[in-house]
Structures are given as C-alpha cells and as structure tokens.
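Good morning C.,

I know you're traveling, so I'll keep this short. The sequence:
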Amino acid sequence: MAEETRDNKAHSTGETLPEETSTQEQYQDENAELDALKAKVEELQKLADLSKDQLLRKAAEFENYKRRSETDFANLVRNANEGLILALLPILNDFIRSLKAGAENKEYDSFYKGVELISTKLTKILEVQGLTPFESVGQPFNVEYHDALLQMPRTDVPPHTVIEEVERGYKLNDKVLRHAKVIVSTAPAESGEGTRNAEEVKA
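The tokens, ready to paste straight into the viewer:
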C-alpha cells in the first residue's frame, strides 16, 4: 500500500523514478555511440573515395608515362642511325654526279657500270634504314624542305616554284634529314636583272 502510494505520488508530482532515469541515460548513450559510429563510417568512406581517386589518377599518369616512353624509344630506334646516314649522303651525292657524268662518256663504260652497282647497293642499304629522297622540281618552294640558292625569271611556271634541284633533299622516316638545295622561279616583272640570290627568295 505504501509503495503504491509512492508511485502515485511520483506520477502526481512529475518526478522520474530511478529506473526510468537509467533507461533514458542508456538510450542517450547508445544514440551518441551510434552517431559517433556513423561519423566514423562517413570519414572512412571519404578517405576510401579519396584513395580510390588518387589511385585512378596515378594509374592514368603511369599509362601516359608508359605510352610516352614507348613512343620516345621507338623514335630513338628509328633515328639511331641519323648521324651515320647524314655523313654518308655526300658520298651518295658523289656517286650520283659520277653516274651523270659517266652516262655522257661511253669510253669508261665498264667503270661506269661498277660505280652504278655500288651506288645502287648503297641506296638500297640507306632505304632499308628509312632514308628516302623527296621530289622538289615542280613543287612550290617550302622552307620546311628547300634551301633556295637562286631565283630565276620564268614565264612557264608560277612564281616561287622549284625549277631546278642542285642537291637532292632526303627524309629519314618522317623527318626531313637534309633540305634540298634548289633554284626557284620568279615572275619576270620581279626579277630585275637576271637572277637574285637566296636571301631574296620568299616562301
């Protein structure tokens, strides 16, 4: 009877019984712990996302580096003989000039054929290494390919057209190894007195 009276009194006065207080505190502690765990999970998720993003960037950078390295190595291999080939070009030029002169003099026909054979073999060896001549006569003058020695007045071709090749130009693979030395046309009205030197040639 006394206990019932105490309970009724507690309810009537709004007081919280010890058992209810303990339950509320436990509930609050559990909520706080749950919130802390959620915050920790969110933090770990952010770190995981950041690490994943950094990993993907590093992987992309590595792939780009790998591709650049492969390209650089391929170019190095392709152009490894550039210096040697460039040194051989004057010899090839001498062969070409000798063949041109020999073709006009049949007195040394056997010698001419021997020089022609050597020139052919040398040309094939250089072609295997990626060396190819490019055509200049009849082409518009292009500073990327041509070195102009003279300008000459011509009426049969447009101005700034290559009309004569003094020395042949070559490419090694896709790279211009040596510019062609050429003579370029100019309109008669622009020619003045005869030829003009290379500094006056316009591209």
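Safe travels,
E.
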